[in-house]
Amino acid sequence: MADLDQLKQKYSPVIQTIQGFSDLGATLDSVSLDGEKLYLKGSVPSEVVANRVWDVIKQVDAQYSDLHHEIATSGGPNQSYSVKSGDNLSKISNRFYGSPNHYTNIASASNISDPNKIQVGQEITIPVLQ
Asked: Would the pTM count as exceeding 0.85?
């Protein structure tokens, strides 16, 4: 029989990732057992965030045979983001893509000519990676 606590521990990076986007409207509505699988139900604000959650699921277990998830996407493909104190495009890229190396995609989508010059409060666009 499946052990809820063991499965929650195994998939804790996924749970933490969803909760880490709560400032943007992500919710985790249910964490329970569905037969022999961990059941996660929630929503994320964009396809960008959904892709990040999916990447973490695959990092935890590429087969994810012991996971049943229903993660709805409540918005469009791209994610808007308001720059916060201490942010730079590499940190933002790491948060949304799991790698700091996609900062140029963010700069391009946000019409930022110099990636080193962003301002606190500036609204930027995090695009879906192709």
From this structure: yes
